[in-house]
Amino acid sequence: MKSMRAHSWLFSLCLLSLGSYGSATLHAAVQDDEGPSAEEGDDQAADEDAEESDKERWQAIVGGDVYTGTGAVLKGATLLSHNGKISEIGYNLYIPEAAEVINAEGFRVYPGLVAIASTGLFGANADLADSVDPWSEEMLLGLASGITSAVQGDEIGKLNRGSIENVVVGKNFFQTLRYGSSSPSGKQELREKFEAAAKYLRKYKAWEQDRNKDKGPEPKKTGIDMGLVSILTGERQAYFNENQRSDLLEIARLAQRFGFRPVIGGGGEAWTVADELGRAGATVIVTPRNRNSKDERLVSEGGTTIENAALLYQKGVQVAIRSIGTGNSTMSGIAGRDILHLPIEAEFAIRGGLSPQAALEAITIVPARLAGVSHRIGSLEVGKDADCIITDGDILNYATFVQWAVVDGRMVYDKQAEMYYAHIRPRPEVALAPEAKVDPGEGPLEGEKGTDAESKEDGSNPPAPEEGSGDSDPEKKDE
Amino acid sequence: MKPTMQLAALALMFGAWAPQAQAQSNRFGPLEVPAKVNGVEPGAQGGVGLAILAKKIVLAEFRGKSVQDNGVILIKDGKIQKIGARGEVTIPAEYEVMDVGDRWLIPGLVEMHNHISGRFGLNDMVYLANPGLRASADVEAGNPMTRLGLAGGVTSVLYIPGSGTNVGGQGVLLRTGFDTYERCEIRNPGSLKLAQAGNPERWLMRPGRTLMNYNTRNTFRRGIAYAKTWEAYERDGGVKPRLNPQWEIFRHLRKREVHISTHTQMYQVVLKTITLVHDELGLPFFIDHGTFDTWRLAGEAEKREIFGVLGPRNVDPPSQTMIRWAGSAPEHMQGVAAGYQKNGFTRIGFNTDSPVIPQEELSTQAALGIRYGLDDKNMVALRGLTIVPAMAGGIGDRVGSLEVGKDADILVTTGNIVDPSQYVELVLQLGEVVYNPQEEGRRW
Amino acid sequence: MRLIASTLTLFTLTQITLCSAAWAGDLMALKATKVYVGNGEVLEHAVILIEDGKIITIGEDLPIEAGIPVLELDEDQVVMPGMIDAYSRLGSSDNGPNGTNPQVMAAEGFYPNSNMKDFLEAGVVTVGYYPPGRGIPGQAAALRTSLRDGDAQVLKDSTYLKVMMRSSRSEKDRIRSIYEEIEKFQEKETKNREKYDKAKEKIDDEKDKDKQKEAKKKLGDYEPLQPDPKVKAFMAVQDKSLPALVSLEQAGTYLHFLDALGDKPMEFSLRIPIALESDFGYVKEKVGEKKLRVVMDPAISVNPGTMQQRNLPGEYVAAGAKLVLIPRSENRGSITDWRQDVAVLIRAGLDEQVALSALTLEPANLLGLGETHGSLEVGKAADLLVLSRDPFEVNSEVQAVMVDGEIVHGKVGL
Q1: SS3 at position C346
Q2: How far, in Å, CA of B191 to CA of B170, rounded?
Q3: Which of A292, A360, B129, B224 could form an S-S bond across to B219 if both were Cys, CB 3.0 to 4.6 Å?
Q4: What is the rounded distance in angstroms from the CA atom of residue C119 to the CA atom of residue C387?
């Protein structure tokens, strides 16, 4: 008995010690679970970040007023991108230490502009992926104007300065058709071809859905214009280049008859048939400053008007804006009329009554939609490409300059680092020092700027943005 | 509702009665323009007076006041009678009143380099010097391009011959708001057109710069000699000299009644113009391009109080092409107007060289000046569209600013017209309404 | 008597200095106050012993055995290795077919032309002579600029494959076609082999021993397919026995070239033209990292739109690249002024010895002659120049040119 008791005593002692050891371990474990101590946590985070920086790319644009392009504006927010895609837009974001940080306090962040028509911005002719000159001066000037993507020929590409990767975003999105009074027989022909294409498509769809084992062969494609079929299936957009009222009316009717949404370039007199175009679901690529007199032989309204874009928009027509010249003519000394002044062209649409939001969309998301790449570019939304511009004011104001341009989460243009515009209203030095970064794990409280407060007190801040909405303030640049 | 009324309502709804373009025009609501009184517009010649109340009246005095906030301007018989603050100016009882609310009043814009007031059939390219040729013979008052310029706010222009030859002829100063020549003429001769650099050297036989300068000196000397014979006659009597229309203009030039509008640009060429025309021959001229790298010379022009009406180029760009052609390129995108300002120049004006830049975009030239570095303190940009070009052309005593005694050439705008998003809602010229988009159905 | 005669002969022999007479094959010594070796070394009071056209000894203040004829240069005369222009048409036109012709050999059908004399007299002893045309025009040869018995001397038939790269789909496809052609050929070869094997199998199955023997005899051994000359050349590129010299148009072209090449094997150097406004500064790090050899013009360029000067050859050297320089153009004046043009780069910061190597040893390396030519080292060819002053001084003239131990131009001594 005695031995047993001794044994059991020993045993329980063991158990106890085991238990206490166990609970000690447990306790320690629990303590760990309570969260890493400051030091440990930092080391861990640092290791993770070191790993990340080898294969991961982060960029944070901090403190700017983010105009997403969808209508939403986040003031003083942060835009975080990961490997070239927008991962978050908001406040109090965790920013990895390896991230490239752009301090955009006092500036605005917009989606990179999309030029629906351009020439020369890529330093190449066709096949952009294989012939782009990633260091062409034209590309740099395009970025300086706020353009991060542009349509050239039948491709839409990114101004990915310094790299030949990821240049082409989309191809073959337009099917150009001629349907104007200049070739009346051509119109007849086109209608017949459309009929044939529609018929073929109906047959094809029926055949496709036929579950019968001994259904006939696939409907023949001979004589069918497959370009028109692609328009009917929605794969490509029908693109017309017409200006006259009667032609535009005909296009609208053609589109409604065959059920597609036409894209119209030129569209000088489109405002006179805005309702019809609206019903047809048309998009008009407007050049607001185009000036043509009405044909005086005709009774009905005609000629161009500065109010073209506004009137179209009112009637539900989607509006895109292109510049007067598609190439760079600024280098010959005349500014304001070429691709480098696309935002000023949009400002003229506002002169004509178009809302600033619609004007912004006309040079961002609408061209992206037309090119079929709006899932990637055209607005600042999570999951889309991190293509944006950081400006010192309303992009639709004539005096605003692009301070930085970002493509695929990489800074590709810095106004102060390039010779062209650095001397014009130079950006004041704002500390981009490490201490300005957000400390991981210790984000600033709501409203508090944390360590950013130091740079503010320097007095070396960029000028604060004008109060007000996206409207261009007439008194902005006055005494 | 009765059927007819229903129809009327429907008609109203679909805007059958009003031009479609009207839809957007009214940022501030409709602008009520006073009706004629006794068949004459208030403010115009022979009519009752007109008082305009506005949130901001841009005076654009050359060296004086820029604006009058919450002001009132009194106009009668086509002239400005009084300008002041709302509380301080009494509006005479018989005056009609137009309250434009938050809109601005701006002096009508003045263009000193215009080629669209006529058919330009008179761009003589035969005689290297033809100082007697008058552009006034070619004017088409109220032509569509001029109307469009008017819609852009341009109320006075200097219509000049081209620069294919050295001395192409005489320009004429015109109003843009009327459709007869007689009502449009402000002053004829408006200017003597001198072209140096770029075009005349390529004339016919390719004289080159040396022969062109030689020809300028030669021609001007002959003209001055002619003028001197007349001055001697007027002073001392004696034999009356024979009138020679070819040289008459030099008498006006010597009296400084008329200036030489000079197409001149690039440093070396403008330096030559300054030393030859101003220093050596003592004739009044203004720079009517002054682009490329002329801005480097602005100090010299300022010393001599020479006016610079700049354009149509807005920048002096960095490029090897420009280095080879114009002789120097700044190593950045140099704004032309900004360069002048940087070098202390205080007489900055803007032009379009219409149709090189469409006439209606004169105000945009000022916007681009600001964009490329012009500091718009003291409304330098607006002055560059109004009083500066007016003074350059020698009509600064009549137009270019809103001051007592001057012509009532007034724009009613939605804001600062330099900003491309603002536009003109009404134009008065000599007190008459010459542009009202609400009636015309089309605006710029 | 005989003693006097032999002494006299010996004396005469030791006193005779060489004129234009050839002494090839014999032993001789060269004494010079200053010798630029070409690999960075500079020797003072140097002695070079030459036998059978090769350098057998070189050093400072070496005693010369009695009986060896000595060529003693003047005090201010300087010796440097004979220059090599590794990328040349010897003054003839660059125009030629545009296509993929890697099998074309520039040496074939080469006839001596009158320009060669200009090259030789300017001090250029060897050129890398490339075939004309665009695309892949063919393989360059190493030629002497001096003639032997009126005939051209080909040092090496195949030195590098010239590739003219541009930023375009067609040129990128051309690069890809190198490996695609090889693959195609290999597929053909495999099929052919399979065919043979099948036939052999069939024979093995044959029961009749006589028939089998006959059939075997008829079939014979397997004869592998021979690649056509084009594919053969491509294979040489793939196994790196034939290096390529890829000429670029602009910085972006390099990126396109790398993209087209992918991970395929190729040994290459780059021909980088230096125009007034050049953007090649953008890829200097990428090129330097790989320690590539670059062929450049001795010219200062400017940043586009400015007058800010850049010494791109110097920058490339600083970034790690190996520099080969060529004359600014192929006209007579540029060939004669080659060293003066290079001097401009030196004044702009390029190291003098690097510049000298860029005219001698590095081009020799590019042509695959680095073991036997390009510098004054033991075992190498006795190709050297006698200059009136230091190579990069103003008015430094070529007074004599020695090729393979033979004075082929100019005079030295009395």
Answers
A1: helix
A2: 6
A3: B129
A4: 15
Provide the pLDDT for residue B24: 47
Which runs of consecutive H residues, i.e. helices, occur in A159-286?
Answer: 184-209, 226-232, 245-258, 274-279
CB–CB contact B318 A419 (8 Å): yes
Residues of chain C neighbouring A132 (CB-CB closer than 8 A) = 167, 252
Closest CA relative to residue A95, chosen from A62, A50, A47, A67: A62
Mean pLDDT per 10-residue section of chain B, whose length is 444 residues:
49 37 64 93 95 97 96 97 95 95 97 92 78 93 94 97 89 97 97 87 78 93 97 95 96 97 94 97 97 95 98 91 73 96 98 96 98 96 98 97 98 97 97 93 82
Kindly list the residues from chain C whose CB atom is less than 8 angstroms away from the CB atom of residue B320. 276-277, 304-305
- B96 contacts B37 by C-beta, under 8 angstroms: yes
**ipTM exceeding the 0.90 mark:** yes
Q: List subunits contacting chain A, requiring 3 or more Cβ pairs under 8 Å.
A: B, C
Of A130, A136, A419, Cβ closest to residue C168: A130
In the chain, the amino acid numbered C338 is W
Contact B317 C305 (CB under 8 A): yes
Flag whether residue C277 sits within 8 Å of chain A, measured between CB atoms: no
Nearest residue in chain C measured CA to CA from B317 = C305
The share of chain A scoring above pLDDT 90, in percent, equals: 70
Q: Does B326 touch chain C (CB under 8 A)?
A: no
CA dihedral (B227, B233, B239, B242) in degrees, to 10, reads 30
Q: Is the Cα dihedral C34, C37, C41, C47 positive or negative?
A: negative
Q: Testing the interface with B: which of A141, A272, A296, A307 to mutate, by most B Cβ within 10 A?
A: A307
Q: Mutating which of B319, B320, B323 best tests the C interface, going by the most C Cβ atoms within 10 A?
A: B320
Q: Cα torsion at B11, B17, B20, B23 (round to 10°)?
A: -80
pLDDT tens-place string over residues C135-159? 999 999 999 999 988 888 999 999 9
Residue C65 confidence (pLDDT): 86
- Alpha-carbon distance of C216 to C196, in angstroms, equals 11
How is A321-354 classified by DSSP, letter by letter? E--S-SS--GGGT--SSSGGGHHHHHHHHHHTT-
Is the pTM value of this prediction over 0.90? no
